[in-house]
Fold this protein.
Amino acid sequence: MGENGVSEIYVIKRNGRGREQLNIDKIHDMVEYACEDIKSVSASQVEMNSGLQFYDNIPTDQIQQILIKSASDLISLETPNYQYVAARLLLYSLRKSINRRLWDHPSLKTHINKCVKLGVYDKNILDWYSEADFDRMQTMIDHDRDYNFTYAGLRQVMDKYLVQDRSTGDIYETPQFMYIMIAATIFAQYPKNKRLTYVRKYYEAISKFKINIPTPVMAGVRTPIRQYASCVLVDVADSLPSIFSSDTAIGYYTAQRAGIGINAGRIRGINSKIRGGEVAHTGVIPFLKKFEATVKSCTQNGVRGGCATVHFPIWHKEIEDIIVLKNNKGSEDNRVRKLDYSIQISKLFYERFINNEDITLFSPHEVDGLYEAFGTDKFDELYLSYEKNTKIYRKKISAQSLFFDLLKERAETGRIYIMNIDHANSHSSFKDKVNMSNLCQEITLPTDPIEHIDGEGEIALCILSAINVGLLKNLDELESLCDLSVRALEEVIDHQKYPVKAAEVSTKARRSLGIGYIGLAHYLAKKGYTYDQKMAWKEVDKLTEAFQYYLLRASNEIAKEKTKCDYFDRTKYSDGILPIDTYKKEVDEIVNRKLSFDWETLRKDIMQYGLRHSTLSAQMPSESSSVVSNATNGIEPPRDFLSVKKSKKGTLKQVVPDYARLKNNYTLLWDMKDNTGYINVVSVMQKYFDQGISGNWSYNPELFSENQVPISTMANDLLTTYKYGWKTSYYQNTYDGKKEEVEPLHPMTYDEQVVGSVNLQPEQEKNVLQDITIPTTPEGEEECEACNI
């Protein structure tokens, strides 16, 4: 200490902008301000917990980071509000790094000019709007909304969504500038007499976390990169031109933020004849390795790594080798572990599983028309005829053996998915056949293989969004939120660029959207219902009816304004067929409620004016962006009241919304005795959704004898999800935590009305389970965000 007790320690100001004497009061004032008006927090506690030790020439940014970590370390169920203190301290750091001050923000126009000059904003924004328009938008911005972020939410925004130079870490915008620029870019081409109204409405909705937008939109809209589709579906024909062209398309879209679905089910099996036997086919594995290399060679614009799911029919000649491709056994020659796999099944194969009969495997090229019929009413008859044909190669295997191997691999990796191809078509909005799904199994759109990168065909793209139902005060709010969501995604379709012609033609003609939920667990907790209660299923039924009704009405209104989509006549909607007509009627066993909305008038309006979009709804995972909104993940029950999520900058603690008030109402995933309640929730939603749902299976081994989940339990869940119309099943999650008390075992039963049940002898059960090593969560779940909004 120098004379008069003044410290002689100096600090290095941010970005090396000189030195100044350390002023402890400045630090104290900043922490005090971060705690201002926040209940049950203490500035002195943050300072004491930081363990700050000063030294000469300590960078001020380092001091700030230590304080941020101190506040974030204090986040707990007893003191959850430190998540807002940590967020404010992080926000101060962000603002000072961009503007050099905490509260004085540049004007919107000044900010845009800077970012255009840096090349991180699309320069066309300056031509789309006038000075007066920018002045109007300036009045819409509320920078104080930055204080609504939790620490985890703001950290996620900074790490993944704000425009930045990822080589240096320099960030160029604050969250409210991000939100207003997204709204302004999306509605730039709207009629000038109403576009600013929609800019304001959309800005309000997204900045207040009422509408959740997907990673490609949040990170990309306003930048020169114009590719915002979360989901890309690439169908591959049984030819080298198609395989190589598809691989190129996969590379283009992986590099531009999209998650990839691949359909390789048409590719012929190993040792099949080529050119009359001149060459024996190498089988699917070498081509899967090619797709794997392409997907993993591209990072998605620095935001996330590439991921893909490959689809195969259960009757494919190589299915026994395909279902083990992810496991840790075998060698690099016969494994392709960095792709995920979805196995397509229809009722005929479930029946053979139940009846302990055989399944016949074929190479698709030898059974003309069989693949094209898979998922339609024509399949069974054609399949049976090929089984009797002795002139073609076929292999018979036990259905139960194959299904148990499939369930074993699903349990062991968590990432072998199920696609019920018949449900995906019978409960589809399309007359055209659905052949596949996407990376995360919620998108079910028609596809057609390409033979050349610029050739004919159909690569399906879907633009995603979600409504935060946890923030709804009443169902009437859905009307405006659905309308805004549909209008915004409608504009995105035309604003984005398309690196592959087949994707552009398909997307602009079909205009498929996939809008879903975040915050369902929060919504049900506010209502006082748990997932396993019948009242919860009824509430979800009411919610989802309103949701789909308002989405369809919004699309119908836009069709009146702009005209119907080009391929509207290729949808069932054009014939007046709605999801409420095609769902699996067994769902009425769960909820049998009279519809609340005037569907008949809507049906007539759709038949008269059409729809602007071929699909409206899909339920995607939202592990990433739900953190931004401080919402519960999609439709999932939270795993705990306090979750710890991975981040490149450390761990992020997130407390469920309204914890203090609703902690006794929340359903926690690992407290659920079985999947029944969750399966029923998804089944009720699927009744109304025109695409699919990323539904998961979750198991707590502590609820079972010898801490082992019986294969029969998994089999019954497989059959139950089929019975109630699930189009797809996504992850399988398994708990490995310890509890002081183990809940009693609740044996599962199965209603045999539709497809029957499977009963295993104890020795069979033991044989199937003995080699299973089950992970707590699917490998790489946190890193795989490709169609996670």
